[in-house]
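Summary for the steering committee. One of the milestones for this cycle was to obtain a three-dimensional model of the protein with glutamine bound, which we needed before selecting residues for the alanine scan. The sequence and ligand used are listed below.
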Amino acid sequence: MERPWKTTDLRLVLEDGSIWRGKSFGSSGTQVGEVVFNTSLTGYQEILTDPSYAGQFVLMTQPHIGNTGVNFGDEESQQCHLAGLVIRSLSPCVSNWRSQKTLSDYLKERNIMGISDIDTRAITRRLREDGSLIGVLSTDAFKTDEELLHMSRTWHIVGKDLITDVSCTEPYEWKDATSDDWEFSNKVNTSNDTKLHVVAYDFGVKQNILRRLVSYGCKITVVPSKFPASEVLKLNPDGVLFSNGPGDPSAVPYAVDSVRSFLGKLPVFGICMGHQLLGQALGGKTFKMKFGHHGGNHPVRHLPTGRIEISAQNHNYAVDIASLPEGVEVTHINLNDGTCAGLTIPAMKVMSIQYHPEASPGPHDADPAFYDFVQMMSQNQA
Ligand SMILES: NC(=O)CC[C@H](N)C(=O)O
């Protein structure tokens, strides 16, 4: 007889040998990935559809997840690319006027595994002490703990090209601006012939980046991650954007080469992965942080003005400040750990930030970065 309650039916086995039992929601099966924790209180849907989480299990430190359901307006891409979702408690009901689906149904449809009813606080403390850990989620009762542990210990995320699978396959034009309901700054109304043309390299781009640029009066052509720089130059754009994206920037040297081909030729803006690729293209190095930055309230200082921005972040790698050659100015610092959060070379019309100016998890502090890029492109035309 089926029990009226659900007992634990899912294991999360971490590479350190610990085993966590919980309840499954979403899809079932066996999945390996890197466990990272995210401290955002809201925005689980944007997190689920952020392609930069490919290969990772996102553990939410906010204990109660799912209460606002899911709606199709808040997606950052058309798919969920993350390996799975790890939460303390799945809301038994949904209460939000925008909700179109429950989180559980949504994940099931997208073939993403979720685990609830496990001690997310204990796992977070472990990740803070030991760093990000590889783990395996499995609903398969026939797989032994040892098998799952072996899987977690033989899988690696460092050195893998994860952007090829999340990038678009053909160039396309992006037309949507931020909708009027959500616009918070003055929209720039430019006629078609005065619009600045931005070519955006899609390494796993979040759609809100594209929407913000359209709101700031740009025309956008999105190109795949391996699109030749020579073809982009033929389009004669006013600037090039290098998007966010999953994985290790050192695993995609072809993308670093692309960034390098534009330096000094066109205004360039790098966001997150784009910032890391730019750091490497300029001759700097990137390194893997202990447990990364994943959350909606990371304080960042803009060094030239001293202004603090509260920013949304999602990254495990960072640009090593000491490795940057002379002439590169560090513009922003993460106040939690002093890592590099932004760069510029004004004479080359190059700028980048390690966090997410398009995300507005409450504050909109980082949005002016888009305005700065637009100014850079306009000045280049003058
Ligand atoms: N959001 C991103 O672009 C992530 C950048 C990079 N993949 C990292 O984890 O550091």
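Key point for the committee: The CA atoms of residues 162 and 381 lie 35 Å apart.
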